[in-house]
């Protein structure tokens, strides 16, 4: 399993099986599928092994010789004035790095038309490590200065068409000595003893021990933002519905939305994360299908993208996608078995269509043979039986 710190990645990807237009170019091997990096991090990514030539840089005389379509794109928006350094390494030689300054219009259009500015171009011969560093060599150029709110776009290019892995250490160095990459690292932000509180706790699900995790909260107004905490307390002045996104290295991500928060009493939000290891399975909530079909609902796309992002930044993991259905009064019908298999395959297709190597995935259906609730009494218990799980292989 790769050692990696979780980063938040957002892609806007789709394909025709779910009522969308297929856009293979929207994977992260092209500008349209750019991975967004929000803070300093170390992680592993995989080239998709794209074959054929790319004419993305045809408008740049200095780049016309670069034709390989085996690329990884990512971008970074500066939270303050500062500089960016990075180191990228691979087992193979033949790495190239181009850094573009984002233009005023759509950056992908501007790169295609030759209007985006090239800030750095690295293409040293016969090296497997390149980057931006104060220690300048043939393979390293100076870090890039960047102003608050500006965006840099990076593309790493392989001279081969193999699905190789790269290791990347990305660092943002702020000019503000008081800058923190998190909104707050304080555990207790409560200011008024008389008002109700929201108490957030992040715990290892197996041991109950605290985990200092990356946490994004939305829906609590002045406390919205990113935190790096195991325990967080703040005031609640009005009832609301919140959502959260939680990540920790070596654990499955966990998200939830529409959590009702009371303004009349204290609220406890317990986030239990499950460790990632071979043989471990976890339910991926929020993935739903149109009844009686394997069609994934549009509301499920964000959760599928989170699963995709998890696999991108944990590029050494292989998973088995497991489909389960709920059939009242049935042990396991032929149709239920086939439906569970079709749903697992549909999720696998979504992931492969959006850049995940199919060699890392398998899909199985269990029909109605492994219900969580053998005699469900509520709709939520029925939904728990009608689920998707992933197994780390």
Automatic annotation (TrEMBL):
Domain OmpA-like: from-to ranges: 276-393
Keyword Signal assigned: yes
Entry coiled-coil feature ranges: none
Signal peptide bounds: 1-19
The keyword Transmembrane is annotated on this UniProt entry: no
Any GO CC annotation of this UniProt entry: membrane
Swiss-Prot/TrEMBL keywords: Membrane, Signal
Record protein name field: OmpA family protein
